[in-house]
Design a protein that fits this description.
Layout lengths: L2 E6 L2 H17 L3 E4 L3 H14 L3 E5 L6 H10 L4 E8 L18 E3 L6 H20 L7 H11 L3 H17 L7 H7 L7
Parallel strand pairs: 1-4, 1-5, 2-3, 3-4
Length: 193
């Protein structure tokens, strides 16, 4: 797609998604350009289309002029796309370029307002991280995941860091499931919990 957009106030998850897209594009042979102005976006589009180099341009919405985005959509160059990363929630009045991004290519990573919802989301994140890092579904029970969130807090970066530690311990022992004993040896309680 010519335009994609990742937004939201969950910075850790949004940044992880941006890195994931960049990694995928790089593996597919794309040139990655981080543009800090509309002029840099135009230069990257020109280089990509002139030399046939697949190009992914990563840019903030304030650094992309709507006319440049419209021209990219109209010209439909092969394998040249723009990834717009929005810090926070999308406001189409302040970011008119956002209205040009097809809904299928927009993802928002929000933080729930209610503490209970945030803790539920954090618990699901812990379970997903454990399953990914240990390579097995169900590698941490829901109650243990909730205990991790209560101990560490709902900061996704800290939760990810703590999950890397605890899963490394579990793997070093040849295990594939996180236990309370593993947590007691590795998890550091947050001052805010």
């Amino acid at each position: 797609p010519p335009l994609m957009m990742l937004s939201g106030d969950n910075r850790f998850i949004r940044r992880r998604a941006v890195r994931h897209l960049i990694d995928q594009a790089h593996k597919a042979g794309y040139e990655i350009t981080h543009a800090l102005s509309d002029g840099e976006v135009i230069d990257a589009i020109t280089m990509g289309t002139t030399f046939g180099q697949p190009t992914l341009i990563v840019v903030a919405p304030g650094d992309l002029d709507i006319k440049t985005a419209e021209a990219l959509i109209e010209d439909k160059p092969k394998k040249v796309g723009i990834l717009i990363e929005v810090e926070g929630l999308v406001n189409e009045k302040k970011m008119p370029v956002a209205a040009l991004v097809h809904g299928a290519y927009q993802t928002t990573f929000g933080i729930p307002k209610k503490r209970k919802d945030l803790e539920g989301m954090a618990s699901k994140f812990v379970r997903h991280e454990a399953d990914t890092l240990l390579g097995k579904k169900g590698s941490v029970e829901k109650g243990i995941a909730e205990a991790i969130v209560r101990s560490v807090g709902a900061d996704f970066g800290m939760l990810s860091y703590e999950m890397v530690k605890v899963t490394a311990l579990v793997r070093s022992r040849g295990g594939d499931k996180i236990t309370v004993a593993d947590l007691q040896q590795t998890i550091r309680a947050s001052a805010s919990s």
